[in-house]
């Protein structure tokens, strides 16, 4: 077990990629905090995880500074420490620049960028007080090359890369590694309503000829969270089937 006795917080852990990460971490011996805004689904996920390991649910709006701090404090209260933070929570509110509202801009930046700042600030403090830890941020291929109609989302994901590189330099000497994953087109619930024609275009744009699966992303998080990646710091890992190659 690569994460035996480790304590991991997974934001946005109730569903999608976050849930997949939480499930894999449980299999690998970690104790998991499912942190999510959705109380009903979050508790259901934690209950499922408890069938094979130890997990709790904490409701959190990551854009709320006090809520993020309370999430970290609850983790330490329950499990005694924080070893791993997965900053997975994120939202979209797409629109062309000329039509994007200030509310749409603020919503995405608040969750996707400020949320990463909030959670990392408080988790890093706990990590530095103990034996160090690992912070893993979720960017996107959109954070590497942009995308039409996603001004706010692209800005947030470019920003996450900047945070990752800065914290990797700032925290490494204190025992905290910081890395980032940039998923490509991934087969989650968000694609359920996407027409087959569009899905086919996504596959055709990806050199390996398929969409990513949740397991692909979760396995990347597992590697970077484990001691196998102890000399990796400040990396931006595309998990996209070669999409960023163009």
Automatic annotation (TrEMBL):
InterPro entries, per database record: KR_dom, NAD(P)-bd_dom_sf, Sc_DH/Rdtase_CS, SDR_fam
GO process terms (BP): fatty acid biosynthetic process
First-level EC class: oxidoreductase
Keyword terms of this UniProt record: NADP, Oxidoreductase
EC annotation from Swiss-Prot or TrEMBL: 1.1.1.100
Residue ranges annotated for the Ketoreductase domain, each copy included: 6-217
Pfam families reported for this sequence: adh_short_C2
One function term, GO molecular function aspect: 3-oxoacyl-[acyl-carrier-protein] reductase (NADPH) activity
Superkingdom: Bacteria
Family: Belongs to the short-chain dehydrogenases/reductases (SDR) family.
Protein name in UniProt: 3-oxoacyl-ACP reductase FabG
Taxonomic classification: Bacteria, Bacillati, Bacillota, Clostridia, Halanaerobiales
Gene name of the encoded protein: fabG
């Amino acid at each position: 077990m690569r994460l035996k006795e480790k304590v991991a917080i997974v934001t946005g852990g109730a569903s999608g990629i976050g849930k997949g990460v939480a499930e894999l971490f449980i299999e690998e011996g970690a104790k998991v905090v499912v942190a999510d805004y959705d109380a009903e689904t979050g508790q259901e996920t934690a209950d499922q995880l408890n069938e094979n390991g130890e997990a709790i649910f904490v409701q959190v709006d990551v854009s709320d500074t006090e809520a993020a701090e309370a999430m970290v404090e609850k983790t330490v209260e329950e499990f005694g420490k924080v070893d791993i933070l997965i900053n997975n929570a994120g939202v979209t509110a797409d629109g062309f620049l000329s039509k994007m509202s200030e509310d749409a801009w603020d919503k995405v930046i608040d969750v996707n960028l400020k949320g990463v700042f909030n959670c990392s600030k408080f988790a890093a403090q706990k990590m530095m007080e103990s034996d160090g830890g690992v912070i893993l941020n979720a960017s996107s291929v959109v954070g590497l090359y942009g995308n039409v109609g996603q001004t706010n989302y692209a800005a947030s994901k470019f920003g996450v890369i900047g945070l990752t590189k800065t914290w990797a330099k700032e925290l490494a000497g204190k025992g905290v590694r910081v890395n980032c994953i940039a998923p490509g087109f991934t087969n989650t619930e968000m694609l359920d309503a996407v027409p087959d024609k569009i899905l086919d275009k996504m596959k055709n744009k990806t050199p390996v000829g398929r969409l990513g699966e949740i397991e692909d992303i979760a396995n990347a998080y597992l590697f970077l969270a484990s001691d196998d990646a102890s000399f990796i710091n400040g990396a931006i890992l595309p998990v996209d089937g070669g999409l960023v190659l163009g």
